[in-house]
Design a protein that fits this description.
heterodimer; A: 216 residues; alpha/beta; 8 helices; 6 strands; globular; B: alpha/beta; 8-stranded parallel β-barrel
């Protein structure tokens, strides 16, 4: 089970600044078990956002958001509600957020931080998609993770070794920042990358923080 | 003048600046640095020492900088985020400044996979842009990254690298703008062989007014052989060597290729000097330092201020 916890509301509202219509996605797998993004939390979030004068166009609870085929199928039944939304708030682990980003052209915001894989990984067979950094960055990177997918974990854009869309380390690895820039360009949000991202708080991450028990 | 840097003085006075580069030895031999420094003296305004370039273990940059300084040159310490976290970076910044090093070049660093210890754990706690901001805040605010204050700040003329030839091209000027906003006083670019692409990048840099906020030194380097040109084209990440360059070197008899490589370098210097916003060159005559006097003289850049 992947251990996640909801981000502070202030951070989520910050992501949604300037947006009115939101579609919510929750996960009936790990996020429900962690009480970070199950049915109860999605309904609570709907209520909270409506209290902040947002309009929730709809929501979807998917058994395992990390299952791309399942998520794609399930979201097909919500096309209208998703179309009416400015963005999608995903209350799952980082893998779920990236799955949703991979199947829609909508802006995707992470609603949770992934603290630990709790001994097992979610479905994403071809590559590592979440390094359990504990402070999800997917909001400003278009739902593509620069921690898990950039060889140098860069936060302010591609290094000088990105060529032809490939990572300098291995031509079989796509340059994460090329993917991020392409996606943000498509979403008309490339200006998000003009801002300097401050040094990351690694103390909450599983790879660099203390080996403490996380969540549950 | 923010610092005691000779390079800053040269640039502030409006001269076309020339920086050089010394690759430190993979040994504890100080004579390698002294020998190279003597070759460069009088021909450059400051010299870089690489910091574990291509992730191969070599003498530390600050130590080699100090040896070069003893030879009367103005050193630029290169520092990468690959091997040091924010604690170690700030300690080395204090140390370098205390030793009288006046310039720093802040880099992310080549990935450890390319070097002679590919099993090493890469650090990458900060990226180069965050690192620039740390140096600027230490110098201008007397503050460490955590916010604590210090009594004596490190007075460093702060530089960064830029690669106009990496992808995605459209993002490269944005990345430069971020480096300027983070605190870069000067920029040294990747080696220029693709003049059209460099000119287009410089045009976009000037369109954004960045050339008025940062001093841009174009990277240049002589090529020794056709093989070296091919190697750079195919094996070195982030390099762009057009076929026309290789053809030019192939077009002369074998014994004259290195001469042609030097002539080509002088031609490139003359071309970048004509481009608006270029404030100088960074000449990387890697393991071929003896060509520096000839190149600088042929390019009409003598005497140095």
């Amino acid at each position: 089970m992947l251990i996640s916890e909801q981000k502070p509301l202030e951070e989520i509202l910050n992501y949604l600044d300037g947006e009115k219509n939101i579609f919510l996605i929750g996960c009936k797998g790990c996020a429900e078990g962690c009480e970070s993004g199950g049915e109860k939390q999605v309904l609570e979030m709907k209520h909270t956002l409506e209290g902040q004068s947002k309009s929730v166009t709809g929501f979807s609870l998917i058994d395992m958001v990390c299952n791309e085929t399942l998520t794609r199928m399930k979201l097909k039944t919500h096309q209208k509600e998703m179309k009416a939304a400015d963005s999608i708030l995903v209350l799952t682990c980082g893998i779920g957020v990236q799955t949703v980003a991979g199947v829609t052209d909508k802006v995707v915001h992470p609603g949770c931080n992934t603290l630990s894989s709790g001994g097992a990984h979610a479905e994403w067979k071809e590559a590592e998609r979440c390094l359990e950094c504990g402070d999800c960055m997917l909001d400003f990177t278009g739902g593509i993770c620069p921690i898990a997918r950039c060889s140098k974990h860069l936060l302010n854009g591609p290094c000088g070794g990105s060529q032809g869309g490939k990572c300098e380390v291995d031509p079989s690895i796509p340059c994460a920042w090329q993917l991020i820039i392409e996606r943000l360009t498509k979403l008309g949000q490339l200006d998000k990358l003009e801002k300097i991202v401050a040094p990351k708080n690694w103390s909450v991450s599983l790879i660099a923080g203390p080996p403490v028990k996380r969540g549950l | 003048m923010k610092t005691k840097s000779n390079l800053e003085g040269v640039l502030e006075a409006g001269h076309f600046a020339v920086t050089g580069e010394i690759g430190p030895p993979a040994s504890a031999d100080p004579e390698v640095i002294r020998r190279k420094a003597k070759m460069l003296k009088g021909y450059i305004d400051a010299f870089n020492v690489t910091d574990g370039q291509t992730a191969v273990v070599r003498m530390s940059s600050w130590a080699a900088c100090l040896i070069g300084k003893e030879e009367g040159l103005d050193p630029i310490v290169q520092m990468t985020c690959r091997d040091r976290n924010r604690i170690a970076l700030q300690m080395d910044i204090l140390g370098a400044a205390a030793l009288g090093i006046n310039n720093i070049l802040c880099l992310t660093g080549d990935h450890q996979k390319f070097g002679n210890h590919p099993m090493a754990k890469g650090v990458f706690d900060l990226d180069s842009i965050q690192f620039l901001k740390v140096v600027k805040d230490m110098r201008d605010e007397k503050k460490f990254q955590c916010g604590d204050e210090m009594a004596v700040e490190p007075n460093l003329f702060t530089g960064a690298a830029a690669n106009p030839f990496a992808d995605p091209f459209e993002f490269r000027v944005i990345r430069l703008a971020k480096k300027v906003a983070a605190g870069a006083d000067f920029i040294q670019t990747q080696i220029v062989y693709n003049m059209d692409k460099f000119a287009e990048w410089m045009k976009r840099v000037c369109d954004r007014g960045l050339h008025e906020k940062v001093k841009i030194l174009a990277g240049v380097a002589p090529i020794k052989s056709v093989g070296a040109a091919r190697y750079m084209k195919t094996k070195v990440p982030g390099m762009d060597v057009p076929d026309s360059i290789i053809e030019r070197l192939r077009g002369v008899p074998k014994e004259r290729v290195s001469k042609e490589g030097i002539k080509l370098c002088v031609d490139i210097i003359n071309q970048v000097r004509q481009i608006k916003g270029v404030a100088g060159i960074h000449l990387m005559a890697i393991e071929w330092e003896e060509t520096v006097p000839e190149i600088i003289e042929a390019a009409g850049l003598l005497p140095r201020p």
